[in-house]
Amino acid sequence: MDEVGANLRKRNLQYYDLSARSNYNFEKPFLWLARRLSNQPNLVFVGEHAKAPEFQIDLNIVREAEKELEQAAAVAIDEEDIEN
To answer: pTM of the entire structure?
Structure first.
């Protein structure tokens, strides 16, 4: 543990190592604070629910795009095009 964490623990203050970039322990201080404010030590955060898409995808358009992708993948590439 680093010096800051050790000093906070000596004073009986809560401390968490966290990283906003990698989301490491990002929710821990908020969970601790929520438990403390609500006086519920067993409080847990629930995960996000997957929302229904706002629009429907037409399967015919998907199939057409897949066909175009297959056709594009089958086209031969000239060596001259690669060099230029």
So the answer is: 0.44
